Amino acid sequence: MQARPGQGVIIDARSSRALILVGIALAGVLGASVNARAQALKDIQTPDTPLVLKAQGSFFVGGDKVEQTAGELGDLGPGGNITINQMYVRYMVPQGGDRNMPVVMVHGATLTGKSWETTPDGRMGWDEYFVRKGHPVYVPDQVGRGRSGFNQAIFNDVRAGSAQANSLPRWIRFSDEVVWPNFRFGSKPGAPFADAQFPVAAVDELSKQGVPDVTFGGVPTPNPTLKALSDLASQVNGAVLMGHSQSGSFPLAAALLNPAAAKGLVLVEPGGCPPNYTEQQITTLATIPILVVFGDHRDTPTGLPGFPTWQERFEGCQAMIGRLTKAGGQAQMLATPERGMRGNSHMIMQDKNNLQIADLILKWIDERVSKPTRVRK
Amino acid sequence: MQARPGQGVIIDARSSRALILVGIALAGVLGASVNARAQALKDIQTPDTPLVLKAQGSFFVGGDKVEQTAGELGDLGPGGNITINQMYVRYMVPQGGDRNMPVVMVHGATLTGKSWETTPDGRMGWDEYFVRKGHPVYVPDQVGRGRSGFNQAIFNDVRAGSAQANSLPRWIRFSDEVVWPNFRFGSKPGAPFADAQFPVAAVDELSKQGVPDVTFGGVPTPNPTLKALSDLASQVNGAVLMGHSQSGSFPLAAALLNPAAAKGLVLVEPGGCPPNYTEQQITTLATIPILVVFGDHRDTPTGLPGFPTWQERFEGCQAMIGRLTKAGGQAQMLATPERGMRGNSHMIMQDKNNLQIADLILKWIDERVSKPTRVRK
Prior knowledge:
The first copy, chain A, has 377 residues and is α/β, with parallel strands linked by helices. Chain A is built from 11 helices and 10 strands. Chain A has helices at residues 16-25, 126-132, 153-160, 176-182, 203-208, 215-218, 224-235, 250-257, 279-285, 310-326, 354-368, and strands spanning 51-68, 80-94, 103-106, 137-140, 186-188, 191-192, 239-244, 262-268, 290-294, 332-335. In chain A, the strands form 2 sheets. An 8-stranded mixed sheet of chain A has the order 1-2-4-3-7-8-9-10, with helices on both faces.
C-alpha cells in the first residue's frame, strides 16, 4: 500500500473558491523589518510568581501506518512502514487544576502551536495564562505541520521521476508584506493603525513563526486533525476546543464527530463559519456553548485580490449564530470593539491586551461551560 | 533575491560517503506494530510531586529574510519577504535554578525536540528531569524540521515547472523495520534483545515522532543550526550543549564557533566524531569538558547495507577522545555496559533506565562543568 494524500481542503466551506478564501485568511507569517530584533530571548519577560504544574509533557493522537517504497523514504534503506497523519500535542496541567475544564488550542494556517506560546515581544502566551488560571491546556500542531510532520512520499516520487511535477501539492506561506493588512496590523506594511494592539515592533519575530503549510492538497480529506481533536477531547474526558483562523471552524467539525466530548467551542477570528450546516447539524451544535471572537478594523482590505474582508467573515459567523440561537443554542459573538477595546488584530492572542481578551474567554468558560464530570488521572 | 538552499550536508564528516553513513545512523522513526497503542495519553504517568518553574516558553534564534516570488509562496498573494533558517527553542527554567548551568538538548535525524519529552511509553523525558534536577533546559527543533520550518521555494518552483524535478532535495524517513536493528532494539523487527532497555511495547509511539528530514540538500551549508546553537549558548551566558545521533557532533561544531559559550559538550550516541580536526581545533576543544555516551549491542548490523556499525562509530569517538586527551583535554567516554547497565539502545534518552543514564550525565556536569558566571535574568 502506498500513501498518497487526497486533495485536502478546508472543511465545511461553501465552494472551492470559498475554500481558498477561507484558507487565505487564516493565519500566517509576517515581518516587514520594523525594528528587527536579532535576539528574542533577551526580550522575554519572566513572571513574578512561579508556575506550578501537576504534569507537563507531550504525546500523539491518531496516525496511520502506511507502507512506502525505498525511494519514497529517501533511499536510506529498503521500503517499509512509517506512521503519517499523527497529531503532536504538548500539554500542561496546573497543580490543583485537574478538576477544571481542559482547553485545547489549535493554531491557524502556516503556523504551529507556537502561536499560543510566548508572544513575539516576549510576553506570556495564552497557553501559560490559561494554565495559571487553573485549566489543563493542550496545544497541538495540525497534521501536516510542525512536530506532527507530513507525508513526504509524493515529493520524493517527483524527484525520482516516478510522478509528475504537477501532481505536487503546493506549500503556502504568507509574505511579511501581506500580513500587515490581512492580519490588520495596519492598512499597509510598516504603517500600523494608531490604535494597533499587535506588538508591531516585534513583527519580525512573528515572521519566524511561519512554516510551510501543505493543507491544500497534501493532507487527506477529511483533514485528520478534525478526528484527532475529537479524540483528544474524548481522551481528556471533555474539553473546550479553541480554533484560530484557518482552524477557526475546526471546533465545530470536531464537535459534530463527537458532541459529548466537546464541552465548549471557541472560534477565534475564524476564517469562516460554515453557512451550509443541515438543520440536524445546527440542532446538535445548539447543545454546545459556542463563543466567536473577532477584533477590530475588520473592513481593512486584505491585500489579497479577490478575498473577502474579515468583516464579511464576521457577518458569516453572525448568520451562523443566528441559526444556532433560533435552534435554542447559546452561541454568542465577542467583538472586542463592542467591549470597549480598540485596535485588536487577527493575531489577537499575541496582541498587547491579549490577557484582557483571555479573561473574557475564561469568564465565558466559567459561566457557560459545565464542569468536567470526571477528574483527569 | 531568491532563496535557494545550498547542498546541505552533515558537517565535519570524512567524505561524502561518510556523510551518508553519519546521516543514516542518526535518529529516526520506527514501529513494527508490536502491541500497537491507539491512545498514548492514557499511558502517561503523572509525577508524584509538582514541577515548579520560574519561567517557561519559547522563542527563535537566527533566521534570514529572503524575498520569494508569488509562486514560491504558494500563490496566495504577491511575492514578498519571509523568514527562513530560524531555529525554534522551547525552554523551562526551574524555580531557584537560575544559577545552575543551562542544558541545550538537540534531537537527531527525522526527529524533533519531542525526542527529549515524554517517552513513548509515557515516562518523564530528560527535558523535565534535568529541570527537576535544577537546570534550565532549552529544546530546539533543528532548522528544516518541526516548528523551525524549512524553505519551501524549490518545491513550489518544481510544481510550477520553473525548476527541474531532479533539483529537489530528498526528504528522508526511517522505516519502522529499519529502526529495530539500526537503533538496536533487537537484531530484527519485532525481536527485541532479551535485555532490551527500549520500551518496545510502545514502539509505535516512537514511529509517530518521525518527521520528514530535508537536511541532505534542503538546508544551507553550513547548517544554520550550528550557529544558532552557538548563539543560544551565548544568549544564556553559557550552556552545556547536548546532541544526539545526527546532531551528535553539533556541540563540537558550535563550540568551535564560540568556545567561551560552550561550557560542556555531551555527545549522545553521535553518528560520528570528526576524525579530521586540525591540531588548532583539537587544542580549542581540549579546553572544554566533553562527555560521549554510548549504549549496548553496538556491533549489531544496522540493516542498512554499507553502513558502519555503532561499534565503528564508537571507536571513531574513542580516537577523538584520544587526541583530546593528548592535548590536555578532559574528554571521556561513558559506555553504559562498562557501568553495569545492559541493553541500552540508540534512543537512550527514552530507554526504561533513562533517568539512571541522566543521573550519570548530571553527575558529570556537577563535577566537570563550572558554574555560570552570570545569572539568568
